User: What shape does this take?
Amino acid sequence: MRTFLAICMLALCMLGVGLPAAADQRLFYQPLNVDAAVTPAQWQQLWRATRAQGGKTLIVQWSAYGDSDFGGPRGWLANSLRQAQAQGLELVLGLYMDPAYYRRIDELDGDGLNNYWKAQLGRSLGLYQRLRKDWQLPVAGWYLPMELDDLHFRQPDRRQALYEQLQGFNRQLDKPLHLSAFTAGKLAPRVYGAWLDQLAGLGLTLWWQDGAGTGRLPALVRQGYEQALPCRVGVVREAFRQVNAPGQAFAAEPAEPKLSGGCHAEAVFALRYRPWARAVLPQN
Assistant: This one.
């Protein structure tokens, strides 16, 4: 009996002292132009440390942002991701992001919104084809950086139009499509969870952002939405705390992600805020 208790105590101690967090198996990385200053040796150090912390999958939020392609197939982003793969990290590679996306979906409605989405998916499809041809990075999936929320897709007809567009887009990809969503509290949790479940039924990998970092909704409200999620929808744990005042440019400081250990796959947003990355990646 004493031996059994000793083993149990040892196991508990091991859990408490430095074993990698389960959520750090999947990490979002948001490329920024300032990251071009990171040296190849620093990238190698970063990816090695990420693996040591339990990292397995790197979800790269985009590979083109507006007019910036981060140097293209031989640029700093592509080269750094090749180093990440050399260290054993698998990649989910992001597609095209329009810097005006959130403003545009605020302005548009009906056919205008549908046509805008169609145009953006077309740009991502063209980028997908170039990435496969020119970058030649083996990937485990593709990430579409246009996030969904229940403010702009509150109406059933908008959700149905989005469903049909994503269905057609997904059929043209050679690997699974990843997509993330957050809640503005505009749909009831049950309806919101059913919507994400419908999208996941297309074969997408859906991620729900837990909202702990932005803090726009009370914790109990966020918890209600999380409890309504089907198990096949993953949860992104926000490892930051937003500190800018309303109307100011986004600013955040690192915070520990709140893991749940439930039935959902978990990921962390973002690598930039994790302790081993803060000395390498410039902070915003």
